[in-house]
Amino acid sequence: MTFSKIGLVAVSLAALVASGCSTSRFSSMDDQQPAPLQPAPAGQVTANQLPPPASPGTTDPSQFPTAPANTQVASLPPDGTAPAGASDLTAASVAGVWNASVSGQTCKVATPQTKFGAGFRAGPLHCPAPIDGIKSWNVSGKQLTLYDENGGTLARLYSSGGSKFDGQTSNGQPISLTR
């Protein structure tokens, strides 16, 4: 007794259809209802007046973490010259990402070696004023200078050894960069 290929396929399909129709896999789910959800907790809604928004260029010190109490920034000579022991700088020694501390507030500053104006591009991340305006940086001898978008000096820093720079902003605030 020989079966043709068409006959074999027809018998196989008939067997599959018959077995598929008689399954009870899903029949038990038709009768079940999902458990009801628990209601959300209810409470009182109160309305309070929000404080006025900060004017542009100002920051709320409470939104930035503070530097540890034992962080010290080296004092600079009043005439703006490099402190004793400051080493000569290269762009390669400054390039990277720095933890900046400005008057006890911390943020990050990226100093890639991407040419920009007379120096290199800079990118502050969540920094307080005036460091939030850093757009570029450059080195000259022992000094690292941070500039705003117009090329104005925002801060001058000097190497304090290893991976640390100390200095002050143009308005006299202490600033340090560490890795």
UniProtKB/TrEMBL annotation:
It holds the Pfam family Inh. The keyword Calcium does not apply. Keywords: Cell outer membrane, Lipoprotein, Membrane, Palmitate, Protease inhibitor, Signal. InterPro entries: Inh/Omp19, OM_lipoprot_Omp19_bac, Protease_inh_B-barrel_dom. Residues 56-74 have a biased composition (Polar residues). GO terms for molecular function: peptidase inhibitor activity. It is a lipid-anchor. Residues 24-86, 160-179 are annotated as: Disordered. Its main location: membrane. Residues 1-20 form the signal peptide. Residues 89-179 form the Alkaline proteinase inhibitor/ Outer membrane lipoprotein Omp19 domain. PROSITE patterns: PROKAR_LIPOPROTEIN. Residues 32-44 have a biased composition (Low complexity). It is found in: Cell outer membrane. Belongs to the rhizobiaceae omp19 lipoprotein family. This is Protease inhibitor Inh/omp19 family protein. It comes from Mesorhizobium qingshengii.
